[in-house]
Fold each of these.
Amino acid sequence: MNDKNEVLIQVQDLKKAFGKLEVLRGISTEIKKGEVVVVIGPSGSGKSTFLRSLNLLEVPTGGTVLFEGTDITDPKTDIDVHRQKIGMVFQHFHLFPHKTILENIMLAPVTLKKMSKEEAEKKAKELLQRVGLADKADAYPDQLSGGQKQRVGIARALTTTPDILLCDEATSALDPQTTEAILKLLKKINREMGVTILLITHQMQVVQMICNKVAVMEKGQVVEAGSVLDV
Ligand code: ADP
Ligand code: MG
């Protein structure tokens, strides 16, 4: 990618407290377009809170988050516009059990009236192809393995053609081989679609398998950040 030096998200002195509990204690970092960044740290260090602050699912109690130059912590900013550029992938997939795989992927864009049913179906089929599940369109979530469910989770997160995928422990429920396959898929999406990836994890092997930048979180702060060899 030739736009690697463009900043996608700039975080300045980000703070979040729940009552007296200070969960984020002044995080400053930036994520550039096209990067694959892993945030690693022990349970309870504030990783999920940090990730959720990037699209205001948690409202910070201090600091700013600039998304493509716009301060999304400014109450005047229309966060819904930015949320469409941010896809989310979760540890436990969050698929609707009584809907088919195709329906699960089409649901958000159709419900939010962002696409017609026909458009959403076309897009969902394209994305299923991309994540290697073209033959599972009419299956139900409980007919899929964990790795396949996460592929669906990734396809669903891509329906709005986001600039970034925020992945919260996306491989933590998976065995090592499946973890590797999912990380390869994320890397492919990064390379082929130019989607920036931010992955948070407590699993060291994720760092070794995927990222080109790593930040270590501890007790609500980034204690170390650096580049690692692109693998
Ligand atoms: P991690 O993802 O690194 O495990 P979290 O961001 O989930 O960490 O949580 C960090 C800390 O914030 C934990 O002590 C957790 O209990 C607390 N916390 C998270 N969300 C809330 C909330 N909504 N209300 C109160 N405390 C919370
Ligand atoms: Mg977490």
Amino acid sequence: MSIYSGPVFEMARQQFEIIADHLEIPTDERPRLLYPKRAIAVCLPIHMDDGRTQVFQAYRVQHHLTLGPTKGGTRFADNLELGEVAALAIWMSWKCALAGLPYGGAKGGVACSPLTLSPRELEAVSRRYMQELIPFVGPHTDVMAPDMGTNEQIMGWFMDTYSMYRGHAVNEIVTGKPVAVGGTQGRQEATGRGVAYLVARAAETVALNPTGIAAIVQGFGNVGSIAAYTMARRYGIRIVGISDHTAAYYDPNGLPMDAVKSHIIKNRVLAGFSNEARITPDQLLVQKCDVLVPAAVERVITKEIAGALQCRILAEGANGPTTPDADAVLDKRGDVFIIPDILCNSGGVIVSYFEWVQGLQRRLWSESEVNAELEKVLGISFDQVTERSRQFRVSHRTAAISIGVEKVRAGKATRGLFP
Ligand code: NAD
């Protein structure tokens, strides 16, 4: 019955079935909870700089509208597929519900390589994407945000395109936009900052000595880089490994993060940073460390890698980094404290919610207010997940998704079926 396929959707479906069994949800109720309410596929014809017209395939999936508008990021990536976007929308639903935000999940994106587009082409793709979706989005319907391959500037173009069609500035149509057009203080850093805060909470829970902690971060974009800088600067954690799609580095004595930052500002990617500390990307994940932060793409922790991990804490900055097979291995091992993705990277959507509220109310918060509220919400979610895991003797992932699914289910039950 489904138009959704592919390994990432299959992973979201399998995870949901585990939760549905755990919560004893009747089989006839499951499709209503799992399958997205709407999926929109559009083609974007773009004039390229060399004079050709190129068509890009793009999507937006809105998972459920039960608790409020849908909310979710926009991914610009090669080989983006509908099934992957749908899985990400489903995870957003459980994530928003876990954090207590009045949203359903959504996700969208364009199948393109943003790094190979010129600035003019990137702007054209971004504006055309928003333009095609105008009938389906709105501040009370579906609110976009950044994800892999998109950034503040692209959110600024989305906001401008939507506003030009409406005839007035509608800055609450997207979050993660520049502060100059109604973005909030602290949004750009929110996801990575949240990851670092939760790593510190987890380290305290498993009684790791804060001064001796060593961390490896895979992916050095928005989430990974901010998580690494914040762990190092704020919590005194030694960053021993980092990688992006161009290179991976490992030094058990700690990498010089100020030099890494200067290199990234100048070159945008990690390639060329050091010859001595180079390591093959696959090897990086299984090096000895206290904290491993996958902050790049899905399905990097496979069952083989799960068996070889040498970390005490697995902090999932990325969405869906651990496959269900790997989860089974980690459950059996029992020695890795997992901060599951829908908790670990929820700082982004929590501060996006603050940004949306500020936009609707035309009222601005300071960065310290944003950060204090962020930690409050994350702290509550962390306590709920760890407490439920203890109480029901289930993994942190099962605990976290169960809380999310239960809230969505309760909303659907209360509202009933129309007509
Ligand atoms: P980004 O585009 O800013 O960065 C992605 C990084 O991953 C880049 O450094 C890229 O080089 C690297 N990368 C890609 N493939 C890799 C590979 N195979 N091995 C190692 N590195 C690789 O994206 P982002 O916004 O930082 O998002 C990263 C992850 O975090 C995604 O899973 C995204 O869905 C999730 N996430 C992002 C946010 C947010 O606020 N940006 C919020 C929640 C979750």
